[in-house]
Every structure is written in C-alpha cells, then in structure tokens.
Write a structure and sequence with these properties.
Elements: H1 8-14, H2 21-31, E1 39-43, H3 49-57, E2 62-67, H4 70-73, E3 81-84, E4 97-103, H5 112-122, E5 123-134, H6 139-150, H7 160-169, E6 172-179, E7 182-189
Length: 195
Amino acid sequence: MIPFNYLGFIFKHFGKRIYPECARSYLEGCIEKLNKDSAVLDLGGGTGVLTEIAYGFNPSPQYIVSDPSIGMLKHSPNFSQKVLSKAENLPFKDESFDCVMIGEALHHFKNIDKSLNEIHRVLKHNGTLFIFDFDPKVFKGKMIYLFEKMLGEPVNFFQPSELSEILQEKGFVINFHKKEYKYVLLGTKIIENNN
C-alpha cells in the first residue's frame, strides 16, 4: 500500500502539476456558479490540492476535504473543513453538497459501488460530480495502473465510457472529456439512485 499518511508534504507541493489546463477549466465551470450558501466536497481529497484550485476560481462556497489519511489532511488548506472518512461511509446528511470533486482518487476507493451510492446520496438534486482520473487502456494510464497495483492499491481504474455507463445507471447525466491518458468526467444528479 502507498503510505499516504507520510506523503502529505510531497502531495501538497507537487500535486497541482497533475491537473492539466483543460481539467482546470472544466472544474472552473463547475465551481464558478456557486455562492456562499453552497458546499463543495473534495472526496479522497488528501492535501486538498483540488480544493485549492477550486478556491482560486471561487472562494465563496464552503469547502470540505474528506480523506481516510490524517497525514494527508493535516496539509489541506486552512480555509477548508477537514473530515477523516472513507468514501464508502460518508458522515454527511443526504443532499449536503452542490458539488463533489474526486481528483485522481476514485481508483483508490475499495468498494466502488458503495462509494458511488454514497456520492449520489450526499449530492443535491442537480448537483455536479467532477471526476479526474486516468484511462487504464492508454499506455501511460496502464503504467500508472500497474505501478499502483504493484504497491497493493485497489486500482479501480475505469475507462471514461465504462464509468459513464455505471453513473448513468445510478441517476446521473454524464459528459466526459479525454486528453491522452487523462480524462474529466462531469455528472449531474437527476434522479434517485435505485441501488
């Protein structure tokens, strides 16, 4: 397993380099319309790199960084609320968030189905889901997959079309945008999850 508890400093200082300009612009589109009454969840957010990027676009919403590693959370930004939790069992009320962001973290979740059900539960109707991850069928994505598998990580990587189908079944309208081995998936919660 990757020792995330001890890598917070590294992720804090180098994590922003992961996100290409196109991913940032899609995130800006999700965040710019929110106001001071809005809440954004950075799920599997680690050191809050994605939260910092989003805050740069719009400082108005309340930002919450949720991660199972206290060593990562201690490096998350002071303007955010820090919550120690796993994606499979979120300690939030139904329909608490206007936006849920998952940056390069979905493949670390152990139980994807349960995690996606929890995301659906805590996201408001018409709320936005932002996912940034790597396509395991493209060479560089496959290398990341193999490296993390070697380290004992869950490696729940999806092709964007595959993840889109799963999320559509759970009540989301989906668009995805792919560049090389990286992709952004944008979802809007429209119906109740039947699972």
